[in-house]
Amino acid sequence: MKELILVIAKALVDHPDEVCVEVRDDERSTVYELTVHPRDVGKIIGKGGRIAKAMRTVVTSASVKSGKRVIVDINS
Predict the structure, then answer these.
(1) Which family does it belong to (predicted)?
(2) pLDDT at residue 74 above 90?
């Protein structure tokens, strides 16, 4: 899942070398913290949050079998 988020994020930003994903896992959920260059935050979020919502939908759909809640946080 981490690789999927990295591929999507690196395709969208101007500074792909500064994209980082950290994973925090507990018994009920998995949190993916996506960190990008401050100038690229708008590109990851998108107009009205459309890109962020689409990314979260793809990640959630891909992790249905895990039985855990998946959260994607975007940081700069």
Answers:
(1) Belongs to the KhpA RNA-binding protein family.
(2) yes
Look up the pTM and report it: 0.88
Element (H, E) at 57: helix 50-62
For the chain, what is the mean pLDDT?
Answer: 93
CB 18 within 8 A of CB 37: yes
The domain tally of the chain equals 1
Strand order in the sheet with 20-25: 20-25, 29-35, 69-75
Which residue is associated with the tokens 């990314």?
55
Q: How buried is 52 (Cβ within 10 angstroms: 0-12 exposed, 13-18 middle, 19+ buried)?
A: middle
